[in-house]
């Protein structure tokens, strides 16, 4: 039946797939690069730090392309896109994993902190999508994967800027799907819970269901293989947050205070 079909064409074989990972220098992006390279994918790695990217490329067997860039510079997306097309002839999947995180309470907001976070986590991703969508629609195939966060499901303490940016990214992915799926272009929304990365190392509270980057990468690959639109993990944690959103606001706020202690 039509409503039981996967929302995206499942990706089960990676041999020869051309995958560009934006935000590949550490954490989930680096782990995903290694996992894809081990499965035969052609991988391109982008982030600001060339040295870190070269280390990841070496861990991928030395075959990965290293393309440093800054997601806050829209022209960088176009430059790297053209370099990859010249090298590969096509792109099959772009994973937008770049992001930054700074724990902030309401009284700690500053204009600069707001703009620094949103420029990287939202505007930069939107610029990147704008750079590759015309290519994919011309090809009539390909896909984009946007790495959001469960922080986008609802308000959480210390996520005063980070959470709204991720909520907007969720809405952006949903809107992209409506436009791109009829054109044969896949859209994947990845919403991780807590993953042990340099960014989450800033947290001064216990992180429930904390995952390794390698486990997160495997969860992403499993979601691609199912053709999911939303890939969220670990489910024992993400499903709780989804259920909390169904509660009346008064109960939601009380439970969040109790669960976080904040």
User: How many domains would you count in the coordinates?
Assistant: 1
Distance between the termini: 46 Å
Number of helices: 8
Radius of gyration: 18 Å
Give the uncertain stretches in residue-range form: none
Strand content: 5-15%
Largest sheet: 7 strands, parallel
InterPro entries: NAD(P)-bd_dom_sf, SDR_fam
GO molecular function: oxidoreductase activity
Protein name: Oxidoreductase
Family: Belongs to the short-chain dehydrogenases/reductases (SDR) family.
In short:
This protein is of the alpha/beta class and 262 residues long. The chain contains 8 helices and 7 strands. The protein has helices at 27-38, 50-59, 74-88, 111-139, 162-180, 213-226, 235-244, 249-260, and strands at residues 18-22, 42-46, 65-66, 93-96, 143-147, 186-192, 230-233.
Ordered list of secondary-structure elements with their pairings:
Layout: E1 18-22, H1 27-38, E2 42-46, H2 50-59, E3 65-66, H3 74-88, E4 93-96, H4 111-139, E5 143-147, H5 162-180, E6 186-192, H6 213-226, E7 230-233, H7 235-244, H8 249-260
Parallel strand pairs: 1-2, 1-4, 2-3, 4-5, 5-6, 6-7
Helix pairs in contact: 1-6, 3-4, 4-5
Structural features, described:
The chain has 262 residues and is α/β, with parallel strands linked by helices. It has a single domain (11-260), classed as NAD(P)-binding Rossmann-like Domain (Rossmann fold). It contains 8 helices and 7 strands, in the order βαβαβαβαβαβαβαα. The protein has a 7-stranded parallel beta sheet, sandwiched between helices. The chain starts with 17 loop residues before the first strand and ends with a helix. InterPro entries: NAD(P)-bd_dom_sf, SDR_fam. Belongs to the short-chain dehydrogenases/reductases (SDR) family. Keywords: Oxidoreductase. This is Oxidoreductase. It holds the Pfam family adh_short.
